[in-house]
Every structure is written in structure tokens, then in C-alpha cells.
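Protocol step 4 of 6: structure prediction from sequence.
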Amino acid sequence: MKQITPQSLERRLRESHFAPYTQHKMLAFYRTIENFAKKQRYLADDHQTIADRVTLMAIPEGNYPAFTPEQLMRFFIVVKPKELAYVATMAFGGARRNECTQMTKEHFNFEEKTAHVDRVIAKRTMPRHIFNPDCLFEWLKLATFPEHGPIMTERKVGNITRDVAKLRQVGLAGWEDNILRHSFLSYHLAAFQNPHNTAYHGGTSIKMLSKHYVALVSKRAAEEWFNITPIAVRDYAEKQGLTHLIHW
């Protein structure tokens, strides 16, 4: 810990590609470790707390950003087969990013068309079934799953979000952290208008839904969102002259 500087800690957090809220939570956790180390005299009494000298992006207030159905279709055009399971599970199932990077093919039941997040990988160890619309398993059928390990690693997630050139090929200007999950929560809430159900499938709280997702998107747009199938994307790509970019 003596080798860590405010600048190095700030840089690591900013380059983590986690949302501002998560970065602040991680910084608070590091501050707790520092204070413990000082009490145990692992650090000198005059040690200046590194966490107090780190400046991060402010946590946004109000609604989180969401993709439009058309933006998601454009995004699917350039998604690789090995990325499909991650993208579809986030967009249509409501799993968190850190849950997806631990989920394996065994978490999906293709025969019964169900998927779950178990106690080991769920936030606050609260297991749940993720939402399982027909479109999710249509995409999963096209996905390339690794023989062993998670459906997507953190490093590969970073590759998806940083590939600006690929996004620009389909008219997408950039990427907001966790936008697929934020979009799911917004559209699920609008489609079913049942906060308790949305909170369960998303593994979040009614309070968070009320603060960030209420009335963000229309019910009509939500119906379009959960009807984005591979066939719908191919039809859209053909009309836009973008079928040459599809590799699934």
C-alpha cells in the first residue's frame, strides 16, 4: 500500500470501465482497508489517506442512459459470435456485467429456456432467475460459447466497449458503461409496469428503479426491444446495406 499513489489509484479506477457509482464504491472499500491498516500500524500514523486525495467522476443523478431499439439492432450487426451470449444476456436478461463475466454455459438451460444467477456470483449472494424472453434464447443459439470458463472475461468486455471504429461502422458514436443493463431495466419496467418483477429479474431494488428508470422509455419502445431477434436484425441490416458486417 505504501507504493500506491493518489494518481495511480485514480488512473486504475478510471481505466476500469466501471460506472461512476461502482468506482466510488471501490474507492470507499479501499479507504476502509487503509483505515484498518493504520489502526493495525501496518501504515505509519502520519500516513496521509490515499483515498481522500482521489478525484473521480461525479455519480450522475436522474435517469441512466439507454439504447433505443434501433441502436441495439445496429450494435448487434457488428457483435461477434463469441460476444453474443454476453450482449444478449445483458440486454434481454438483466444480468450485471460482473455476473456475466462469471456465468458459464451451465447457467443456461436451453431445453427449458431458463437462465439463472447462482448465489456464488450474484451481488449480495441473492440468487435469481434472469428474464428469459424468446429473443434471448434465439441469440444464444447463435452464440459461440467457450469450452470452459465464463461466457465473457473482463478484458474482452473492455475490447467491445473500446472498439470505437467498429461502432462507427453502424453509426454508433460511443458507449456508455453498463448501457445494456440500464436499457434492460428501463424497457422491462416500461413493458410490464411491475417494479417488483423488474427488481427481481435485475437483482436490484425498488428504490434504484424509482430513482433512475421510471418513465425513461415508452411501452411501445419496450415491446420493440424484446422483439429484437436475429431475423429482425438481418432484415434491418439489409435495408441499411450493412449485411456485409454480420459474422454470426
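Step 5 (inspection) to follow. The longest helix spans residues 20-39.
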